[in-house]
Amino acid sequence: MKRAELVFERPEGTFAHEPPEVRGRGRDDVRLLVTRPDGHHHARFDDLPQFLREGDLLVVNESAAIPASLPAQGRVGSILLNLCTRFRSDLWIAEPRWSAGKPGPLPVEPDEVLRIGSATVQLLAPYPGIPRLWFASADRPFESLIAKHGGPIHYGYTDAWPMDTYQTLFSRVPGSAEMPSAARPITTRVRKRLEEAGVRTAPVLLHTGVSSLEIESETVEAQAMYPEPFAVSPETADAVNRTHASGGRVIAVGTTVVRALESAWTPEGLRARGGFTRLFVNPDRGIHAIDGLLTGFHDPVTSHLALLTTFLGIDGVRDAYAAAIRAGYRWHEFGDSHLVLR
Amino acid sequence: MESPAPQKVAVITGASHGLGRVVAGFVAKQGYSLITMARGEAHLSAAARSFAAAGVQVVSIPGDVSLAADRHRLVEAAKQSGRIDLLINNASDLGDSPLPALEKASRESFLRVFEVNTLAPLALVRDALPLLVRSHGLVVNISSDAAVGGYPGWGVYGASKAALDLVSKTLAAELRDRGVAVVSVDPGDMRTQMHQDAFPGQDISDRPLPDVTLPFWAWLLSQPPMKVSGMRYQAQAPVWEVPA
Hints:
The complex is a heterodimer of chains A (342) and B (244). Chain A has 342 residues and is of the alpha/beta class. Chain A contains six helices and 19 strands. In chain A, strand 15 and strand 16 form a beta hairpin. Chain A is globular and about 55 Å long. With 244 residues, chain B is an alpha/beta fold. At the A-B interface, strand 9 and strand 17 of A face helix 8 and strand 8 of B.
């Protein structure tokens, strides 16, 4: 697939700048675009149970967001070091940025030193194929820097909100650099109605890194990916396999869940698996483990959009996004939701 | 204040070029002191100077891993440090270039390739075992996709690496009780001198440079060694699994 195929235009004002609860609204008070083979349906998020049925399985990500954005000082001035992937307490992949609204790559060199409070952080080497990311080591555990100096990673279109804003009903294991946001509108009320409708949930774990990669290579499939820790338990692998065997649908809540499930997929079905994955779900590879996807709206030319295209086809994505733009749906982590069933 | 952790020590063979050089440099940046071996003295000392820029101690020992006397000097250097946390058996011999079909491969070439690629890594583990046991070290044997490929021309080299894979897996089982971990790693296609020798005169510029494997090394060196012992990894694969 060519990079150019993932380009689309959006009018101004399609970004959600704040979570609905800051205006006194519920988290589930967002819109839901449902894309099915029979067309698009415009709904509210709390209508979700109506589009699912008994025997369906929602797979959710248990990873909780951490305050992974660290203010740092270096030769280039005051910058942000956004942590991405933890290898061990003193070694991460990280993204040095000018600021929340101004990305890199920064003019930094291998072995360059940054200061975070009294700690010394060293940028060891650039990440191969992704120039904005670096291997970063520290003279003490990054966890202590996160606890002392960390704030939520955010970008120019929204402020930093309290950390609670970035957790979902399913957040249990801290480790994601950014919120796995697809489950954000699932409130206890929505969850109860899903349960009453006979829709079950099963957890996976994937600690997500810094936000969806913008694809830089001409051919989408050639884009380098960074690794993320993941785990699919025997219980969840079993629940997915039994759902498929009994004719139910497996619906991933978020692209992180798709990557975890696809990383554990084999032609004989899902198996329990854990480790690190940098699986790129793209049209060349295909998508095997899911029958539905609940997600947000994704930016042009990103790996998330490539994933959605794999599931829905490029014409399907263009059609759905044209409908979403016409009807004024809002993009990004505090925006509206998109349920895709095939 | 807790006492500082002891300086970790890595022994890396074939460290003057290609993959070995890139991995050794990255291991040094992660704070390991290095003990390196390669046959070419000039290239090895140039590489050693670049490794030392990370601020760690670097000992370079010119030599051939297939020679017992040279291996002995390598292990003696490690004894000075008192430990081996990481042993990377990377030095490899491709055999004849251009690569011969098996029906044309010479017995001498076969023996030489097995000496370097299969027997030397095993011998080095044996020589270094007391230090590996004391440090609960990780042994990494560098394999190849040719070990499972059946590619025409790659029979000699591939067979030596297939044998090394089985040596790795067996050693992992045999050394588990003593706390020594063993993995084999297929680094994947890369733009290196060895790869060029396998395809003399051909353009291999479409292959990635050896730094394409850095994410894998960052990951592997962060795992508790016994959790991954016995595994065979592909450094460029999308998933690196930790068995349950």
